[in-house]
Amino acid sequence: MSSVTFETQRTALADVVAIPVTPFAADGTIDEATHRALLRRLLDGGVRTLTPNGNTGEFYALTPQERQQVTEWTIDEAGDRAVFLVGVGHDVPTAIASARHAREHGAQMVMVHQPVHPYVSQGGWVDYHRAIAEAVPELGVVPYIRNAQLLGLRLAELADACPNVVGVKYAVPDAARFAAFARDAGLDRFVWVAGLAEPYAPSYFSAGATGFTSGLVNVAPAVSLNMIEALRSGDFPAAMKVWEQIRRFEELRAANGSANNVTVVKEALASLGLCRRDVRAPSRPLPEEERAEVAAIAAGWSV
Q1: N or C: which terminus of the chain has fewer CB atoms within 10 Å of its end residue's CB?
Q2: 136-164: per-residue pLDDT in tens?
Q3: How far apart are CA 59 and CA 282, in angstroms?
Q4: Model pTM?
Q5: Which residues of 196-214 are buried (b: 16+ CB within 10 A; e: fewer)?
Q6: What are the positions of the active site (predicted)?
Q7: Is 56 flagged in the annotation as binding?
Q8: Is CATH 3.20.20.70 correct for 6-233?
Q9: What is the 3-state secondary structure (H, E, C) of the chain?
Q10: What is the pLDDT of residue 302?
Q11: Which pLDDT score, from 0 to 100, does residue 257 have?
Q12: Residues 6+ away with beta carbon under 8 Å from 127
């Protein structure tokens, strides 16, 4: 195991980590043709890292069979044009089965969604991720951390047991906490991905992140890529120019506890004629009066 360096995976995480949407047809099923077209648009736009079954893909609203379909279609469509970070989660046996399915279809990494359980102990968090990581030692494993209580030392403990834990998607909205967590876990030991997308990318990059996730990239790949280029070159004023460009869009997504996080992205895509605006409960389409603002933002980006 020690001979595996996971360089491909590490490089792919230090980038715009796109979270594709899952488009639905009029009958409520996943629209495969549109799904593939949206993936091609991302790839043609320069995206090289894809996360099928992420939160922007409505992971928790998909059936187990649909999650498998999304994984298979994404890997089939992108082929060697991308590196895949497949979202897995739920109970441990389900997460392991999903990770093995991803491996069998050619994925290089899995992202482990935060454990969905009202009672998560620190040691139990380690146990949960360890069981999944040990089941797929050939894959890079990326915990998705949204728990502000979790200590960086617990992540270090996990990686001591599982050297395939190579990156972290950190999504606690607190840049100072991120800086401390990363240093407690081992700043140089992992690839740190700013898990709250473009709004947090500049502050998290200043503290050691080298990649960020994005749902906005579905709408405007060039905007997200402009930001990462600025951040890579250390040009924070240029990055903040992009930040100003995306601010309102991301504020709409984050409002009311991120109620419309996916909704706003799909509304923007719908305004560009790229997919239907349908989302699944517990999300809901935007009311008519709020659609024009999203359409105006998306139109401005596509100029």
Answers
A1: C
A2: 999 999 999 999 999 999 999 999 999 99
A3: 12
A4: 0.97
A5: bbbbbbbbbbebbbbbbbb
A6: 144, 169
A7: yes
A8: yes
A9: CCCCCCHHHHHHHCCEEECCCCCECCCCCECHHHHHHHHHHHHHCCCCEECCCCHHHCHHHCCHHHHHHHHHHHHHHHHHHCEEEEEECCCHHHHHHHHHHHHHCCCCEEEECCCCCCCCCHHHHHHHHHHHHHHCCCCEEEEEECCCCCCHHHHHHHHHHCCCECEEEECCCCHHHHHHHHHHHCCCCCEEEECCCCCCHHHHHHCCCCEEEECHHHCCHHHHHHHHHHHHCCCHHHHHHHHHHHHHHHHHHHHHHHCCHHHHHHHHHHHCCCCCCCCCCCCCCCCHHHHHHHHHHHHHHCC
A10: 73
A11: 92
A12: none
Return the active site residues: 144, 169
State pLDDT tens for residues 64-82: 999 999 999 999 999 999 9
Residue-level length of the chain: 303
Tens digits of residue pLDDT in 169-208 = 999 999 999 999 999 999 999 999 999 999 999 999 999 9
Query: Is residue 2 scored above 60 in pLDDT?
Result: no
Amino acid letter for position 21 = V
Taking a C-beta distance cutoff of 8 angstroms, is the pair 24, 58 a contact?
Answer: no
Q: CB-side exposure of 126: number of CA atoms within 13 Å?
A: 16
pLDDT of residue 3: 55
CA 263 to chain centre: 16
Structure-block tokens of residue 234: 């250390």
CA distances for 184 relative to 7, 62, 152, 214, angstroms: 23, 35, 5, 26
The pLDDT value given to residue 1? 42
- CA gap 222, 66 in Å, rounded: 29
- Residue carrying the six token digits 């401005």: 300
**Structure tokens given for 247:** 């601010």
Every domain of the chain and the residues it spans:
6-233
